[in-house]
């Protein structure tokens, strides 16, 4: 159901007029601001909202949503704008709700290993805040995203193999529903069997069922000891198989990241790591000093069994920081492989038993297509990324890349995996949901229709037409 | 909305006639069978369905649901009937769908640490099946429940502090929705951001949104080393505070169970453990030999700091089995405290920082009420059980116990906890959901109305009228 079809004549102008009166200088129709609040990160078109409102409280979000609902005007939540699938675009216009000023840490409860933050707090801001208390929040997507946005897209990152994803880390959400009702999805007990799991329903719903305004998160203690290291392999298959055995052996590894040979070359150039130009695993172990030593030894034995080079672990913080900074800068490093081209980052995730096969087929596909596209991945979860370097002004290249994306999604789904492990659906992956979910897609549609009957919450995202 | 109000005249008889034709000897209207398929475990009334059908495939469940939907007849799923809150009662009549014959282990995939089972497979059956492969499924509610039922009630147990609950352990569900549609809620990747989390929506929905017919579960490797032990404390507060510090210290403890003095006395009598009659923690550590030794040492230091008695760990399997059998038999042991009385088991769960306070207030309440009611709990999660010994033929006692239950639920909720950590809502705890969830309850009602518009799926459960 299209919002515009429902919108009463003059509804948009009336709504914007009321919002301007209510929010004053925090309401803007400036073209450049609107452009910045729509998709700017890849080849998806930039589709700006009609106005941007900077909200400061949950009650303000509720007020805004009630006004928009009355006039059938779309509401598109905005955190940091770093989503990779066009999540912040406004294809039907409407209002972009910028939550970045809701950036207060409301409470940290070390005794319960949890905290409550406003949706606009970013993951780095939270970790800076927590450090003195010996706590950290482990989930680390590439960007310094807002925690509300990370909850909305069910984000994860390099630590997920040990600490889980946003699905596992969110204890409770405050959210504004499509009629302006403010709800709390749960209380703070570590577990509950009291009713439907609205927390998990909103996590990953990408602003299409409600707007997340506050997030209560599980925290972890900073480990007593941390060791990190790199290990070279002859092939991606060997690296994947070493990963599989590491997971199967129950080693509680904190991070295990694959970089293919091309990605290692790019990273060498960008970050001066000086690694041999073969596939590598970057790993990290957390625990007591004795446990970390034991894990590193066990991993070293497994790596050696698959022809891995000698594994040396770095325990000095500055060495570890250099390593992981290089890993997190993969996006920028990849850009160096083809200056001037755009990076189109995508992800897929398969059962770990199919990982080596899926990565190998994907590499063959890349070679056949002639794309420059390094692979990097959170392979402990069966999740990997392809970063395509594309001249988006060249329609032939764009078409090649689009077809490649389709084959990758279908390959992952055919292996009982998913078209996205952590980036989300947004606009970019809607077309694969029917294949991935079959009749379950109808259930998702029923939920959307029940909770947002006017279709005003982030229309054009997640569910295909 | 009441199903009976919707039911067309003669609808029930027509539906039962069609089901009898279709299922033959697997359809029964026998009074004793119907009674056994309704609540038999506590003081809640026994409210039988009008018929019982033994299904053998997902397609049969779909066929049954379609017939019942056509005639507006309630459908009540039945696994082992061990739910503690009247989950299997049929207050509006209808059909009890017995899934116990759907007891095939469909696939075990050691390489992915997962398995797929039919809903009627019980947790012990699965663990017997897995043992030769070095794998286990850690979630262990007291009863040998069916895995479909455990998913439906979001069950957990003694291992949840380390391994999570059914919320964390279910990868994918096959379910029959209210119109007979068969869905798969997800694929088998360890994580996904592709659409709404229908898996978590059905986990804990207690058969009110769909009937779970197959479950894909995460498995764990049997640890290389296991050590268990007991530790006596002077007070419940000391034991709780030792628990809190153990969790905060990040010790990856596998089990940490509190037994209050009365429960220890009952367990001594029942299982001959010969422990001093003071509060105890029963604990277990999993990991490598070195890790287990380190965890046990660290726990011993923490326990000593709170006046805990000397902690001795048992590594011999037979000693551990005796210990945990005694813990699992708490229900039967409690019965010995007042022969002839019924055991009314309830549970609550609070943030761990409030645990000592919540247990202490609850003990004071028990003393004041004059109930015989030992406490036992999964305290690492802030979750504890009260087992009331009640003469259910005595209305005064029943009233006392009911008021006590209400105070316990409200106490837990007032401490930012939940009226049930793992037993579920069923019929017994519906009355507390408005207090616990506030406006979020309206969202749950919208979802129920959208997914089961005729109200035929397990009516009278979870959501209050």
TrEMBL record, chains A, B:
Enzyme class: oxidoreductase
This enzyme's EC code(s): 1.1.2.4
The FAD-binding PCMH-type domain, residue ranges: 45-222
Ranges that cross the membrane: none
Gene Ontology terms: biological process: lactate catabolic process
Taxon lineage: Bacteria, Pseudomonadati, Pseudomonadota, Alphaproteobacteria, Hyphomicrobiales
Full protein name: D-lactate dehydrogenase (cytochrome)
InterPro entries: FAD-bd_oxidored_4_C, FAD-bd_PCMH, FAD-bd_PCMH-like_sf, FAD-bd_PCMH_sub2, FAD-linked_Oxase-like_C, Oxid_FAD_bind_N, Vanillyl_alc_oxidase_C-sub2
Family statement: Belongs to the FAD-binding oxidoreductase/transferase type 4 family.
Pfam families, per the entry: FAD-oxidase_C (PF02913), FAD_binding_4 (PF01565)
Gene Ontology terms for molecular function: D-lactate dehydrogenase (cytochrome) activity; D-lactate dehydrogenase (NAD+) activity; FAD binding
Cofactors demanded by this protein: FAD
């Amino acid at each position: 159901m299209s919002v515009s079809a429902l919108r009463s004549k003059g509804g948009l102008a009336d709504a914007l007029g009321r919002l301007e009166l209510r929010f004053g200088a925090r309401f803007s129709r400036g073209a450049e601001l609107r452009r910045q609040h729509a998709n700017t990160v890849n080849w998806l078109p930039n589709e700006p909202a009609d106005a941007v409102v900077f909200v400061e409280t949950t009650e303000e979000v509720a007020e805004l949503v009630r006004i928009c609902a009355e006039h059938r005007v779309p509401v598109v939540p905005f955190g940091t704008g770093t989503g990779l699938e066009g999540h912040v675009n406004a294809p039907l216009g409407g209002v972009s709700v910028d939550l970045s000023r809701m950036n207060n840490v409301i409470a940290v409860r070390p005794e319960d290993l949890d905290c409550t933050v406003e949706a606009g707090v970013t993951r780095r801001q939270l970790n800076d805040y927590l450090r003195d208390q010996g706590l950290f929040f482990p989930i680390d997507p590439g960007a310094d995203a807002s925690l509300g946005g990370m909850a909305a897209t069910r984000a994860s990152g390099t630590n997920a193999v040990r600490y889980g994803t946003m699905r596992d880390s969110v204890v409770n959400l405050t959210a504004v529903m499509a009629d302006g009702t403010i709800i709390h999805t749960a209380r703070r007990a570590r577990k509950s069997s009291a009713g439907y799991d609205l927390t998990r329903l909103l996590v990953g719903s990408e602003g299409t069922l409600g707007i997340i305004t506050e997030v209560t998160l599980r925290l972890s203690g900073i480990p007593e000891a941390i060791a990190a290291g790199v290990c070279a392999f002859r092939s991606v298959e060997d690296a994947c198989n070493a990963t599989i055995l590491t997971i199967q052996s129950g080693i509680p590894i904190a991070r295990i990241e694959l970089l293919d040979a091309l990605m290692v070359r790019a990273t060498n150039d960008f970050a001066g790591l000086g690694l041999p130009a073969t596939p590598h695993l970057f790993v990290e172990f957390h625990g007591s000093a004795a446990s970390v030593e034991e894990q590193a030894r066990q991993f070293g034995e497994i790596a050696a069994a698959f022809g891995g080079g000698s594994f040396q672990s770095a325990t000095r913080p500055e060495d570890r920081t250099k390593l992981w900074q290089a890993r997190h800068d993969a996006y920028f490093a990849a850009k160096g492989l083809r200056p001037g081209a755009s990076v189109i980052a995508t992800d897929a995730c398969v059962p770990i038993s199919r990982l080596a096969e899926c990565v190998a087929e994907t590499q063959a596909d890349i070679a056949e297509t002639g794309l420059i596209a390094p692979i990097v991945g959170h392979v402990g979860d069966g999740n990997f990324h392809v970063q395509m370097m594309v001249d988006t002004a060249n329609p032939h290249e764009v078409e090649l890349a689009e077809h490649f994306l389709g084959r990758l999604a279908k390959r992952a789904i055919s292996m009982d995996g998913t078209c996205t492990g952590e980036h989300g659906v947004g606009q970019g992956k809607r077309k694969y949901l029917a294949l991935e979910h079959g009749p379950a897609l109808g259930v998702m549609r029923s939920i959307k229709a029940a909770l947002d009957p006017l279709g005003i919450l982030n229309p054009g995202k997640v569910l295909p037409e």
